[in-house]
UniProtKB/TrEMBL annotation:
Superkingdom of origin organism: Bacteria
InterPro entries in alphabetical order: FTHF_cligase-like_sf (IPR024185), LUD_dom (IPR003741), NagB/RpiA_transferase-like (IPR037171)
Entries under Pfam families matching the protein: LUD_dom
Name this protein carries in UniProt: LUD domain-containing protein
Residue ranges of domain LUD in the record: 42-222
Organism: Desulfitobacterium dichloroeliminans (strain LMG P-21439 / DCA1)
Amino acid sequence: MSNRQEFIANIAKKLGRPTPSSVTPVEVTYPLFQTNSPEERLEHFLKMFETMGGKVAKAATSAEATEALKAWFGEKPEWLGSNKVITWNELPTMARACLEGLGWSARVYADLPANREERYAIMDKAELGITGVDYGIVQSGSLVLKSNTQRGRAVSLIPIRHLAFIPASVIRDRLDQVLAELKQSPIPAAIEIISGPSRTSDIEMDLSIGVHGPVELYCIVMDNQ
């Protein structure tokens, strides 16, 4: 008799029951979260993103996106300056148009010094990291980002603020749908799933914001893509 069988037999004896000789599979079913249309999916995503503590706006044009950024940050934020805005190399056209329209200078992560210490010395002082997004998840209000040499994950993790641009067309209802699509292409070294600003309560159950990542999270949903 194996250890497993002995263990089960001992439990059965304690319960005053015969030792089971076989196991009948139990079929478990549960309802899956699902929206009924792209419009409903988008509206639910916007609500859940804000519920998770982020700020979000829809924009069909770069002009609309620029107005949203002005509402959040002002035309010339007090923190704006040299090396204060870091972006992915691969940035959506709308994001670049917003930077140009606002006159904000930005550095590209892949062009930062190759030396790790020098690179992270710059990143530590960055106020805003700007990225694209590969997928959105309605059920949890999450952003999913794949990293590579042109999309340094530090851009979304180190600066105080993270601004993400996501096409409405890549928003999915659930995580399992995103994972199924991710498996269709080579898996990158890192995949980030971001659900609101960084938060933790593992020290004396005291909620702290920004310990492991940005204090503020912003998202522009590109409603025409």
